[in-house]
């Protein structure tokens, strides 16, 4: 594992690129300032093809991944059972169906394939990694269909996958949004083992759960994210600017601007220096 003095290296990933033009603009600002090491894109969004062009100059210095989306906006193809109205279901309904084993396998497999293809078609390369909007990649059923789809496309071992879980001890030591971290760790249990069995590496250590509250002290929250890092530590974040498209699609709005402001600030750099932490692409961080 690369060292930062006696400290550690970690990956900082901005989720939701292409969710709206303002979100994408904010993420590119953070990439330009070298305050991120990765960003995950939503290929289901109407602006993805245009936004892909503006993202290419940041690669490969930053890793660019697919943010698998099964809960926001519209799918890339018809899903008459899963999304009969043309709109993807909310996360609560998806979790219930996943654990109830009532997900339409063929439809979801096809949508996973379409989203991967849309990434490659617009970006001109396969994603460096895959994660999921609201952590859908880790849900029962979906995780296996994702792994098998990647194998069918010849991508085994050629990218890494986000494990949205972490050990109980690290979650408790880190504090912050404990209920969210514990809930996601619960439905991500076994994901890394399954991924490894299919030939894919994962991060080891995961943080970034936020209250998304306008009055949250994000700098203080970020200090928690750096606590008890794993050997291949990954922190998610959600920076960006707000616009009408974002407000129509997602409840997380003004907190994105606070996250962006912190990442671009000297306070962010001072915190990394205090913790002896350094940004790195996850693919080059070794156990």
From TrEMBL:
What's the cofactor?
Answer: Mg(2+)
User: What does the UniProt keyword field contain?
Assistant: Carbohydrate metabolism, Hydrolase, Magnesium, Metal-binding
Q: Which domain of life is it from?
A: Bacteria
GO function term, MF aspect, one: deacetylase activity
Pfam families, alphabetically?
YdjC
Query: Can the keyword Transferase be found in this entry's annotation?
Result: no
Q: Name one GO biological process term.
A: carbohydrate metabolic process
Q: Which residues form a coiled coil?
A: none
Does the UniProt entry include the keyword Hydrolase? yes
**InterPro entries, alphabetically?**
Glyco_hydro/deAcase_b/a-brl (IPR011330), YdjC-like (IPR006879)
Protein name, as recorded: YdjC family protein
Q: Which organism is it from?
A: Beijerinckia indica subsp. indica (strain ATCC 9039 / DSM 1715 / NCIMB 8712)
